[in-house]
Amino acid sequence: MQKELLHYTLRLGDNALILGHRLAEWCGHGPVLEQDIALSNIALDHLGQARMLLQYAARQKGESYTEDKVAFFRDITEYYNLLILELPNGDWGDTLARQFLFDTYNYFFYTELLNSKDDHLKAVAQKAIKEITYHAQWSAEWIIRLGDGTEESHQRVQKSIDDLWMWTGEMFTMDEIDQKLIEEGVAVDLAPIKEQWHQKVAEILDVATLKKPQDDWMQSGGKQGEHSEYLGYILAEMQHLPRMHPEAEW
Amino acid sequence: MKTKEDQIWQWLEEVTDPEIPVLTVVDMGVVREVDLAGDHPVVKITPTYSGCPAMNEIEQNIKGKLLQEGLDNVEVQTVLSPPWTTDWMTDKGKERLREYGIAPPEGSSADKSVLFGKPKQVQCPHCGSQETTMVSQFGSTPCKALYKCTNCQEPFDYFKCI
Predict the structure, then answer these.
(1) Which of A119, A227, A230, B123 gives a 20 to 30 Å CA spacing to B37?
(2) How is residue B16 annotated by DSSP?
(3) A47 touches chain B (CB under 8 A)
(4) Residues of chain B contacting residue A35, judged by C-beta atoms under 8 Å apart
């Protein structure tokens, strides 16, 4: 087992799992039926991707591990998702702003992961990129609709983008885990992804008549297991049942 | 003479998709391979969408069908690569979808126009009109989008092309 590869796999798996969990909270609360269904569909895609990645992580950890054990029996400091994904959903504009900022990143990231020398990550990317492409299109269209909509929607989604901006820097940070795996051709170099992301985000915000915030101080730590209190509540809800009844089957 | 492999494929033709019962798992292109090289038969399947909730049931249904036919040690393996595409759906499958009221995937999956592009022109499965509009990219299951026909006014599901 390679320590770095496991950590990297968990980062990707946790991103999908935590965002999938957050989006699932919208189920039954969407503003209209079609969009409620859309968010539930997207949540399901993320959960499916999380399964493929956590199955891989479990395989790396050894015989006695399963995807469920990896998801439900790790504590908060062993979770490596991006902080932006664990933030509460807020209103529709906040959720869509987060989706737009992350989906755009995810699209460029997974496009590059298609070239990974790790066969499993590559296979996950081949599967996931088709779904992620749909997500990116949908959230970009919503940002345009809200930004170029009414005065109220414009103001509110601008505030959502502004508020979320300090959580976007973490998407592009690289540490020794990234460096080692980039050298091996397994991980994605995030420097070119950052450029592509800025360009696409600027393009969409422009169409949406929204202002792109200036890069300033950025939050970070999620990739190394340092989280906000929000993740604790997510894990408590997600994990309490399997921890109370570890052998339960249904 | 029918080989054992042909026989298994034929049995699999009777296993239907739990969400879209007019389609068999073979029509869907979900079954990739029947492998008899080892000491037990292995059926390899591939998920349509990562989070498709029907996959576990499909696996159980395949095992159940083959058990019924006397094969009690079948293994069903999920393979991710190459990823499933709507191109693998058989023509017969596409026709059955249309008859069922779901517009089949249009064109080749290699079409990348999906990103920030215009939605595809989809034919209404009820009246055959091309005058249709997309209501939502996401439908009742991950593999479908919602459309409406502006000619006959009927809403319908479109099987997304991936």
Answers:
(1) A119
(2) B
(3) yes
(4) 136
